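Key idea: predict the complex, not the pieces.
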Amino acid sequence: MSDTISDFLTDENRGVVKPVRVATGQPQRKTAVLSLHALRGWEGVLFLLALLLLWQGVSLLKFKGGYLFPAPWLTLKTLWISLPELLRGTVSSFLILVPGHLLAVAVGIAWGLLVGTSPFLHRMFAPFARFASPVPPTIYVPYAIALLPTFRTAAGFVVFIGAFWPVFLNTVAGASALPQHYRDSASILGLNRFEYLLRVVFPAALPHIFSGISVGLVFAFILLTVAELFGANDGLGRFIQLYADYADYPRMVAGILYTGVVVLAATEVLERIKRRALFWVK
Amino acid sequence: MNSTATPITRSIDNKGIEVRSLRFAYYGNAILSDVNLSIEDGEFVCLLGPSGCGKTTLLRLLAGLEKPSAGSVSWKGKAIKGPSLERGVVFQDYSLFPWMSLLQNVLFAIEKSQPQIGRKWRRQLAEDYLEMVGLAGAVQKYPLELSGGMRQRGAIARTLALGSPVLLMDEPFGALDPVNRAKLQDLVLDVWAGSTTRRTVVFVTHDVEEALYLADRVVMLGSSPGRVIHELKVPFARPRTRRTMVASSAFISLREEIDARFRQDVIARIEAETTINTPGEGV
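Result:
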C-alpha cells in the first residue's frame, strides 16, 4: 500500500501536511501555528509590540511614498469607521467560501475514502490527480469567470477546486495508511464496504482529513480573495482592491488587517472542531 | 449442541480444525511448509515457537485472514475461505477501535453478530461481557485511557461478544507485565472452562510456561520454513495452579523436552545451512 500512495504524493505533496501522529506523546498544540494559543506566551506578544512600534516609526518618517504607510492609530480609526462595510463584505465572501469549502470537504472525503481503499479506483484516478492537483488553482479564475454564469458560481467553483485537492489527497493518504490491525478487526467483524468505510476507515483517517481541511481552508481564502480582485461587486478582496484603486491606503491596510483577523478566527474555529473530533488521538 | 444428534453425527461434529499439507509462501519465500494439524472441538491448543516461525501466519490462515498457497484449512469439514464470525480473533494489541468507547466497541460486535437483538438488550449484553472480563466500572472509557491489560480485557470481551465457537489468540498477553499476564491467562481459562458449549481455543505464544499452563496440547513449530516439529499432550489436571505445576517434576521434564526439541531443530538447521553454503556443493 505504501508504494501506491506515493504515486499520489511524490512531488505534489503540496497541501499534504504530516498529520498529528496517533498514540505518540507529542502534544498537538505545537502544530497549531495559526491558532490563538500562539499568543499565549509573552514572546509572541513582545514580537507583535515590536512590529507595531516599527510600523509607528515608519509612518512618522517623512519620505516619498510615505502615504503608503498610514499610522497604526489612523488605520484603527478607519477600520472602526469601515466596519459596517467590511461586515457586509464578510457576509458576501462567506456566502461563496462556506458552500465551496463544505462541498470540497464532502466530495474530497467521500472520493478520497473510495480511492484510498480501492486499488481499481486508485489506478484509474491517480494519473489524473498527479496531473491536475499541482496546477495552481488561481489560474482557473479568469476561465471560471468566463465559463460560469455569475461571479458567485465562478468564485465558488475556484474555491472548491482549491480546497478539494488538499482534502482529497490527505484523505487518500489517511485511508491508505490504515493500520493492518484495524483492517483485520474489520474483517473479523464481517463489515460490509459501507460500514467499513464509515465506521473504520473514516475515523481512522480523521487526523489526516483534518490536516487537509485546514490547508484547504487557507487555500479557499486565498482563492476567494484573488477571485474577488478580478470581478466582484462586494467582498473582502473587492474592498481592498477598490480602496487601492482610490489610493485610500488607510482603508486598504485596515481591510488587510481585518481579513487577517477573519482568517485567524476561521482557522481557530476549525482547530476547536478538530480537537473535539480527535479527542481519542493522543 | 443439538440434543437429537446421533453419536455418529456427533463424532463428525467433533472434527474441529483440520490443516492438511499446508504451505504458505510470501513472494516466493516459504513461511509455512507441509503443516498438518488437527484440533478437536473444545480443545485448548497452544502453538509454541520462536519468533519468525510462522505461528502468527498459521493463526491468520485459521482465521481466514490469509489464503494458503497450497494444501487446505477447514473447520467442521468446510474449507475456510475467509474471515467469519465463527472464528473470533484476539490480536496482540491495538485491536480495539480507539475512537469508540469500550461499550461502543463491544456493541459494534454484538450489532454484527446478533443483529436480531433489540437495542436495549444489546446494551445489557455488552455490559455483561465487559463485567465478565472485569471492566464493569470502565464501560464508557476509551482505549487511550486504559492500561495495556485493560485494553486486552476489552479485546477479549469484544471477541466473546461475537459468540464465536472458535477463539484464535495471537500472543495476546505478549506486551503485558507478569502479574497482568497471569490474571488474563486465568480469565481466558475461566471463560473457556465456564461456558456451556466449550469453545475451541488456539493460542499462539513463545512462552513455554504459558503454553504448559493453558493448553491441553502443545504444538511446537520450528522455523525456516515454519513446520510442526513436535506435538505433546499436557498431562496436568484442571483446574491448574501455577505454583504446584511449576514445582512438579512432570513440568520440569516437559520443559526440558521442549527445550531439547527446539535446540535440535536449531542445530539441524544450522548444519543444513552450512552444508548448502559449502563452495561447489550442489552445482
